[in-house]
Amino acid sequence: MTDAHTWCLFYDFVAPPFSKEIADEDLWVPASRERRVDRLVEACHEHEHILLTGEPGVGKTCVLRSLRQRLPEAGFRLTYCHNATLGRRDFYRQLCLALGLSPRATAAAVFYEISQHIHELGAARVHPVFLLDEAHLLHQDVLDHLHILANYGWDSRALLTIVLVGLPELADRLALRRNRSLLSRVHTRVHLGAASPEDTAEYIDYRIRAVCSGTSPFSSDAVAILHEASSGRLRDIDRLATNALRHAAARKVRIVDRSIIGKVIGDHLNDLID
Question: By the 8 A CB rule, do 77 and 120 touch?
């Protein structure tokens, strides 16, 4: 534990409870999200293309990591691409590198290299899954071409699964007339909403129990205020809950109550104004 995390000692935590550094198998997935993960896993097994949308911080990456955990390595090859602001040629060059291929000089050569690799994986009974994160930022020329990547054997062979992940405006972009060819090939469409108040309470308790054997230092009313302030977005819960624990530990307070949460939220709002 680093000096920056000495506040954890006050609560007998073995690690910061709301850290991003958590193994896939230890991720928290509520029942409502489990059903969505089930849909994604089923879509991959059926070789369908996927659209996954949600507001920032609602847990899209957690769902993707759960998907990665659930898919057997022997039958699937997952490739994750997150630099969505590239033009078409550089986008495919990035994809080549992610696949362990050597990018060629021209866009046509790069696309051919990827296509051949997908065919080879199919022959080996390995299904490639391309996870395209931040897809709402994709250049239009990339969107114009993705449906070609999704089309094999005159659209008669499902040799890969494309997972488009992004903010809700991604669905709006795909609904445009010029993108209808791509959208028509996306049969599985999942939207993640914010966590419910019950989900937030379960999430906080789960993350606390993962780092200590004692009870949660958060009072029930503090959890309710934390949910309201974060609008159920896990990323905001992580930040506000961590700041509250730091604030309480610095004052030698064992219970994080509504007054401490209120102080942390107030400081956050003041920082935004400044």
Answer: no
**pLDDT surpassing 80 at residue 15:** yes
Mean pLDDT, rounded, of the chain: 87
Computed over its alpha carbons, how large is the radius of gyration of the chain?
22
Q: At what angle do helices 140-149 and 107-123 cross, to 10 degrees?
A: 40
How many Cβ atoms are within 10 Å of 168's Cβ, its own excluded?
12
Q: What is the Cα–Cα distance from 237 to 230, expressed in whole angstroms?
A: 6
pLDDT given at position 270: 57
How far apart are alpha carbons 162 and 47 in whole angstroms?
9
Domain contains 35? yes
DSSP letter at 263?
A: H
User: How big is the CA angle at 100 (ends 91 and 98), to the nearest 5 degrees?
Assistant: 40
Domain holding 146, by residue range, is: 29-192
Q: Which amino acid is at 212?
A: C
**What distance, in Å, lies between the first and last C-alpha atoms of the chain?**
32
Residue 117: which residues within 8 A CB-CB, separation 6 or more?
99, 101, 128
Residues 88 and 176 in one domain: yes
Q: Is 64 exposed, middle or buried (0-12, 13-18, 19+ CB in 10 A)?
A: buried
What pLDDT score does 196 carry?
Answer: 92
Q: Cα angle vertex 103, ends 102, 107, to 5°?
A: 155
